[in-house]
Each structure stands twice: as structure tokens, then as C-alpha cells.
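TL;DR need C-alpha cells for one chain.
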Amino acid sequence: MTFPGTLGSVAATATTPAGPPPVSGGRLRRLYDRFEHVIHEVGKFGAVGAVAYMIDTVLYKVMLDSFQLETLTAKTLATVVSATVAFVGNRFWTWRHRARSKLHREYVLYFFFNVVGLGIALGCVALSHYGLGSVSPVFRSSNADLIAGNLVGTALGTIFRFWSYRKFVFLPLPAGPGTAASPLAPVRVTQSD
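>> reply
TL;DR here they are.
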């Protein structure tokens, strides 16, 4: 035990560095608190997307190699199946805390934005397979198509889909008095079309 003015308290203060106090987790915590809901949505969207991506990749490769379908047809079919799986996961898990509108409204909008995302992936495949493939036959292989469609195209399409689903499909809860519930709590609100 040390008392003020004794050598023990002087030694304790002498070892404390001069200058600003060490940065605590306060700034980082405030940043996390501000974007917590988005971080949770991105994580869930990523998990659902990983499952859909695996389904898409396996189906696309099987359709190319086993069924020998044309590359754009195979990509379209694989994307339709994986998008259906992703819709169920996103509606009932990723954005379950958001307002609910009619199922057919969400489904139609969801697939409209998936068609745009598919267009992005198909554009990457077409550019690689037909554009770059006319320069080098390496780009006409199923592996090159897989990289163009499922790596480059999927990455670009995923960014677009996350933004569009949050903005237009799975609507935020309406702001107003009495909307003090946690933004992550599951809430059902129906809207008229």
C-alpha cells in the first residue's frame, strides 16, 4: 500500500508515459455500434451466398461437362436454381428483421435484380469466352468460363445484388413513433401493393 507523497506513488506515476492516453476500443466500438446492423446483414448475406455459390458452381460445371450444354445456357440454369435457394435464405434469415411486403412482390423484384446480376455474370463470361477467346483458345475452355462467370461475374453481381436487395426488395422498417424495437429483432409488417 502506498500513500500520496511517498516514493511508491512517485514510481507509479513515473512509469506512466507522457502524452495522450492510449487509444481504447471506444472509437472502434462506436464505429461497430453504428454499422452493427449492416455487418450482421453482410455476414448472413455472405453465408447464404456461399451456399448458393456452391450450388451454382457445381451445377454450372456439371452442365458444362456432363450435359455439354452451351456455356450461357448452363450459366443461366445454374443461376436460376441457386437464386431460388438464396431467395429463401435471404428472405427468412438475412433480412427477416425488415418490413414484410407481399411475397410475390419480393419474389418478382428479387428475381429481377438477379436477372441483372446474371447479366453481369453473363457479360463477364461472354467477354472472356467470345471476346478474349477469339484472341486465345485458352479463354474458350470450361475452366476459363468458370473463372469469368463464377469468380469475376459473381463478385461484381454480388455487390450489385446486396445493394439492390437492401434498397428495393427487403424494405427497412418504417420510421415513426413506436419504432423503438431493436433493428435486428424479427418483425412482421405487411404493406399493401
